[in-house]
User: Fold this.
Amino acid sequence: MSYKTLMTVVTDTGVSKPPLEASVALAQAWDAHLEAMCMGVDRTQTGYYYAGANAMILQETIARAQRDAEAAGQHVRDTLGKSDVRWNVETGVAQLADIGRQVAMHARFSDLVILPKPYGENRGAELEPVIEGALFDGHVPVLVVPEEGLAKTRPERILLGWDEGDEALSAARAALPFLSAADTVHIVVVDPPAHGPNRSDPGGLLSQFLARHGVKVEIDVLSKTMPQISDVLMRHALDIDADMIVMGAYGHSRFREAILGGATRNMLENSPLPLFMAH
Assistant:
């Protein structure tokens, strides 16, 4: 089992280096084809044109996005041309409100989408809908690469966050190529329910499922000693010297997470490790 079609999306060459390098390295490791989608983004607010903007302004915003797309495409071609992987580059233009749909149309035919962290200094507003488009409408797992890059194409120790939810199970299934190749996978359960059906063996059924795929599993049951579960997961990942975190994404609605915060948002903002997510 392996990934054979990888995809990355470039909207800003300033943050493209870590995911692009990771994409090439993984394509080499998995003998996969790499697709790069280079998008120029029209960031004008939807509806602005109808408030009196003339055709020249409309044309200029589209022309600027087209120039950005061509520049990104050329940058990616120059980078991939130095590698020995199979690749192709597509360029296009999208409005900010529509970029998630554009990404999803391409991502749904990929095994894994590799993207930069969406939050942080000098990061455009389009990075968040790019991730959400791949996860929700493309129905494909996403590997979010931190600024430090992907240290290992075959992570030796992986932390798998487990809360018995559908999202976490989807992430575990989607990450099987990574999990089965790892030396150890730590299934981490934080404050399991005292009266749940699996209270006597938290994580046991998942560990059995993974073990039958040849995954070497350990179960770590932790107390919620920090305000957010995501903080507990990140601290434990550092304690066990993990190379990657695998987790379900957006157990609550995206709106609720955006307004109130949540594990997904906090991990995307603060995880120092590559973050594998599925919904």
Observations:
- The mean pLDDT is 90.
